[in-house]
């Protein structure tokens, strides 16, 4: 049994659900909790009018609600396995934020799903798994 949770990056895709299922297996094997993270990409560096700020606030509220609903299947999966699970939705850059949360939670591991294919955009701009493998303070597992 360990007090260090597994952090799982989750976005509601099939790949993310496979990552949750794998995390459930690992958590059961080592006796730890799972912390689910849903990251909403957001940049604080934009200049907006008052009306745009109001609209942005409304969109953020809607995004948070959708994110909480998106997390539900992952929470259900882990709850059925009787694994202690927590979750959070935060704004920021996915790779940086998941690494930061892993440090905050003193995680033993990060698990994410791999989206299929190898697009030109992912090769040129990078991908979440690549960012995590390069920057993570803990081991990273990428689930196919």
UniProtKB/TrEMBL annotation:
Pfam families in UniProt: Usp
Species annotation: Thalassospira profundimaris
Family of the protein in this entry: Belongs to the universal stress protein A family.
Residue ranges of domain UspA in the record: 5-144
Matches recorded under InterPro entries: Rossmann-like_a/b/a_fold, Universal_stress_UspA, UspA
Name this polypeptide is given: Universal stress protein
Superkingdom as given in the UniProt entry: Bacteria
Xref: PANTHER family: STRESS RESPONSE PROTEIN NHAX (PTHR46268), UNIVERSAL STRESS PROTEIN UP12 (PTHR46268:SF6)
């Amino acid at each position: 049994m360990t007090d260090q949770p597994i952090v799982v990056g989750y976005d509601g895709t099939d790949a993310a659900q496979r990552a949750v299922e794998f995390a459930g297996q690992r958590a059961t094997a080592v006796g730890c909790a799972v912390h689910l993270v849903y990251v909403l990409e957001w940049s604080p560096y934009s200049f907006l009018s008052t009306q745009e700020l109001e609209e942005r606030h409304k969109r953020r509220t809607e995004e948070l609600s959708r994110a909480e609903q998106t997390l539900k299947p992952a929470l259900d999966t882990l709850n059925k396995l009787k694994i202690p699970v927590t979750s959070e939705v935060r704004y920021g850059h996915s790779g940086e934020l998941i690494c930061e949360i892993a440090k905050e939670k003193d995680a033993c591991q990060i698990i994410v799903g791999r989206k299929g294919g190898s697009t030109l955009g992912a090769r040129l701009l990078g991908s979440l798994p690549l960012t995590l493998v390069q920057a993570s303070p803990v081991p990273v597992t990428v689930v196919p």
